[in-house]
């Protein structure tokens, strides 16, 4: 049966909003700062790429927004495209009232002074190119002066709900490294610890290269890789983590913030990531016998540890796992 023809009958704002909502969009947080340097921002899904040459984009701001004058008259603004795990930021910057939207939100000032939020799928730092009045909104056209992008998938908004794209997870490579009977950990400014882990990458090879760059620190870090140690997805399903076991050569440089910890202390350390905590507890048990297993995710609530008993005819390299 064919779809009915569009009706000429009047429609109200609710009908129009619902029809607009059928178009799935990304979600952005648009930011700028006052002359005194105070940050300001709002959530918007009215974002459009406009031109490659010159590089232009546009976003819309409602004429009733409390930040209208700041964005209309300011010299620049930034568009932060939220990643799939940043629904909390979308809600924070859409909220009303006097709440400090930037409290505990990590950001850095861009070239225009506008806040660039951390962890986004992409960010665009723009100067004001043109402002166009359009009904109950203003169209802010920005000329892009700088950008940053990541392999993180973007957040999607459709039919009044947030959702995530169906995509393969980004890949990260991590390491459990020992030397002289101790294990290398990275100390955080909050007093906690973490294992070396690369930023999300598009391929396993790129993740391994990023890990080895991070390990180099102030100089070359010589690692004799022993075996893969764990393969698992993050709790949010956005990243797949490959951890490798190896030994640091004596006298090799350590990355910034690195500390060497005795195995018996590993189970009691303050480690925020639950996957890393579990690996360190297992490592503390396995290192005494020098018999390590490979942890892999399974369909059930608990993963499986597979014994690594096959002798190797040549030294293991992390790249072997993707051959």
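^ Assign residues to that structure.
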């Amino acid at each position: 049966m064919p779809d009915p023809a569009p009706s000429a009958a009047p429609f109200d704002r609710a009908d129009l909003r619902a029809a607009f909502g059928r178009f799935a969009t990304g979600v952005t947080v648009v930011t700028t700062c006052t002359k005194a340097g105070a940050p300001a921002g709002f959530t918007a899904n009215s974002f459009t790429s406009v031109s490659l040459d010159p590089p232009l984009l546009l976003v819309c701001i409602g004429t009733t927004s409390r930040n209208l004058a700041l964005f209309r008259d300011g010299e620049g603004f930034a568009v932060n495209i939220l990643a799939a795990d940043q629904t909390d930021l979308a809600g924070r910057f859409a909220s009303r009232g006097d709440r400090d939207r930037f409290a505990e939100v990590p950001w850095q000032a861009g070239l225009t002074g506008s806040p660039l939020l951390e962890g986004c799928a992409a960010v665009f730092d723009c100067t004001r190119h043109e402002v166009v009045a359009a009904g109950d909104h203003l169209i802010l056209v920005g000329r892009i002066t700088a950008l940053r992008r990541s392999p993180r998938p973007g957040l999607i908004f459709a039919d009044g709900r947030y959702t995530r794209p169906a995509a393969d997870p980004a890949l990260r490579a991590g390491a459990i490294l020992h030397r002289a009977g101790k294990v290398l950990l990275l100390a955080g400014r909050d007093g906690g610890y973490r294992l070396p882990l690369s930023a999300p990458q598009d391929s396993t090879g790129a993740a391994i290269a990023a890990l080895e760059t991070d390990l180099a620190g102030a100089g070359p870090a010589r690692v004799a890789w022993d075996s893969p140690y764990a393969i698992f997805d993050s709790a949010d399903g956005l990243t797949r983590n490959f951890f490798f076991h190896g030994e640091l050569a004596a006298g090799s440089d350590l990355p910034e913030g690195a500390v060497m910890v005795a195995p018996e202390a590993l189970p009691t350390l303050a480690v925020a990531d639950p996957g890393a905590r579990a690996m360190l507890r297992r490592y503390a048990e396995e290192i005494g016998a020098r018999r390590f297993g490979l942890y892999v995710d399974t369909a059930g609530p608990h993963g499986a540890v597979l014994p690594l008993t096959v002798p190797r005819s040549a030294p293991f390299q992390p790249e072997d796992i993707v051959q």
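The chain is about 15% helix and 35% strand.
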